Amino acid sequence: MRFLVDASSDARLVGYLRGLGHDVTRVGADHPGSLRDVAVLSLAVQEQRILITDDRDFGELVFRRLQPHSGVIYLRLETTKIAARIGRLNDVLTNYSNHLDHFITVTLRSVRVRSRAGTE
Predict the structure, then answer these.
(1) According to the CATH classification, is domain 2-114 in 3.40.50?
(2) Which of 63, 60, 44 lies closest to 52 in space, CA to CA?
């Protein structure tokens, strides 16, 4: 799979995903860190990547402004512990693999998959 990790998300997720064999780039490392959210979302679409972010503003872009996307995993986690972040991300990749082109909100206790509003 192809992922774009937003600058708001833990950079260690890049190494984890690459270790699983995924194609991963990161805003702030592979792309300018100064990109606005709409440009990040557009970049993900252009490169056909699933965006991983901790930034709730992407929900606004997808559901209110109807911006296209290739899938968004919004990590709405109350912890910075990498083990918890990787565990929740792994749960999504394992149990929601058929929905990665949707907007997925991940908390410590739940995963919510929302419709494809804003997809091409």
Answers:
(1) yes
(2) 44
DSSP 112: E
Per-residue tokens: 30 = 């592979």
pTM across the whole model: 0.93
Which pLDDT belongs to residue 97?
95
| Cα dihedral across residues 57, 31, 70, 106: positive or negative | negative
Read off the tokens for 79.
Answer: 């912890």
Average pLDDT in the 87-102 region? 97
Decide if 20 contacts 5 (C-beta within 8 A).
no
pLDDT above 80: residue 116: no
